[in-house]
Design goal:
single chain; Glycosyltransferase; three-stranded antiparallel β-sheet
């Protein structure tokens, strides 16, 4: 029978011998960063678009993998058994950081582009708040790993830029031109609507600011964390439905009946993380009941005993099992188990979800990583790439690091 301890060992193996080597192999030593496309058939396109979100997330991943190594969550011997050294993880993070600094960040108008050509020249010069947030996330983690003060300074610059150019009186705006003139938000709108504001952008600004505050203890950032939690509690969370709303007009009025199961279970633990990092008892009292309700409702509504459905759009459930949703489910239920140790169903759910990932989401083919999505029965959906601008080691790599940190080794 699977236990938390056995899951920890299997997750460590997945991280060290599968996920890390896969992404190291996608490093582009000619033009910088990491290659941006691997098809389902495992055909690598070395001249594909390089998403700046993708490269921020890869930089974040290797930075956190190195920090996990330095904290003793795995050893030098573990790394060498997998074919690399612990210090190689920092070198990968530096490779990603240099690409962000020298190519992704716009030196003329500030901020980070949406995407680049394969050679590092700008392709899509949209400045999206979501993208700025992920660069802050990466830079903050790279600063923790490397102690490079320049990285922290760049993260603070992007924080100031978001606060100056990407906000209004009620929340965070979304999409801008290169010169930071507002434009429509197709990039973070889905399901047939065009949203002025999204839960997704707000969540990842919060996530990035949590990391920046954790490594800097900048009280200006801390105050914005409190403000964002107020927005979640008062505008985004729907207490009657025990869920978050997803897409909004300019005044944070919901514009679509959509329940995003993956975002709710991810939000449950990311808000808890922010509360812990901030250490403010008033916000703990305000937010924890919300995160517990989110986790409970997802367990009751979307979890079928082995895996999590994708979303429910206007009453119609999308039953596909998406890679990132499955990864966040493991962490979200582990977090709920830690919060509410009397609720063993959350522990069992995390274990069952990991079993489903092992059996159906991890791609067993040599030279691959995780499938993008599979059907409810676990069979892979064949037209989704293994790597593209959104498909990266952020969710599954983070799941592994969270599991290693949350479960003590025997």
């Amino acid at each position: 029978m699977e236990t938390l301890e056995s899951m920890r060992g299997e997750v460590k193996t997945e991280l060290l011998t599968h996920i890390i080597p896969f992404w190291r192999a996608l490093r582009d030593d000619t033009y910088g960063g990491y290659y941006g496309w691997l098809s389902y058939d495992l055909a690598l396109d070395q001249k594909a678009e390089k998403g700046c979100i993708l490269n921020s997330r890869i930089t974040w991943f290797f930075s956190n993998a190195y920090t996990a190594y330095r904290k003793g969550l795995f050893t030098e011997e573990d790394c060498r058994s997998a074919g690399y050294t612990g210090e190689a993880l920092l070198e990968e993070a530096k490779h990603g950081y240099v690409f962000l600094k020298e190519h992704c960040i716009d030196r003329e108008y500030g901020g980070i582009y949406w995407s680049l050509n394969y050679d590092g020249t700008p392709l899509d010069t949209t400045k999206h708040t979501y993208n700025q947030a992920f660069c802050i996330y990466a830079l903050s983690s790279y600063y923790e790993a490397s102690h490079d003060e320049e990285a922290l300074a760049l993260a603070k610059q992007l924080f100031s830029l978001i606060e100056e150019k990407c906000t209004d009186e009620v929340g965070y705006l979304e999409a801008f031109t290169r010169e930071f003139q507002p434009e429509s938000n197709e990039k973070l709108s889905e399901n047939g609507v065009l949203a002025d504001k999204t839960m997704n952008t707000l969540l990842h600004v919060f996530e990035a600011y949590t990391e920046l505050y954790r490594v800097s203890r900048d009280e200006t950032v801390g105050e914005r964390l409190r403000w964002i939690m107020d927005v979640f509690a008062e505008k985004v969370y729907n207490p009657a439905k025990r869920r978050q709303e997803v897409f909004f007009d300019a005044g944070y009025h919901t514009i679509l009946d959509l329940h995003s199961y993956g975002h709710d279970i991810e939000t449950a633990w990311l808000l808890d993380r922010g509360v812990k990092v901030l250490g403010d008892e008033a916000y703990e009292a305000k937010i924890v009941p919300i995160t517990q309700a989110l986790a409970a409702h997802i367990y009751e509504t979307a979890f079928d005993g082995h895996s999590l459905a994708n979303e429910c759009d206007r009453g119609v459930v999308n039953t596909h099992r998406v890679w990132w949703v499955q990864a966040e489910t493991v962490v979200g239920f582990l977090n709920a188990c830690e919060q509410m140790p009397d609720h063993s169903e959350y522990r069992d759910a995390a274990l069952a979800e990991w079993q489903f990932i092992k059996e159906h989401v991890i791609d067993p083919r040599r030279g691959s990583e995780w499938y993008w999505e599979v059907y409810e029965d676990g069979s892979p959906i064949l037209d989704r790439p293994i790597v593209e601008p959104w498909k990266c080691p952020y969710h599954n790599g983070r799941m592994c690091i969270e599991v290693l940190g949350r479960i003590k080794e025997n």
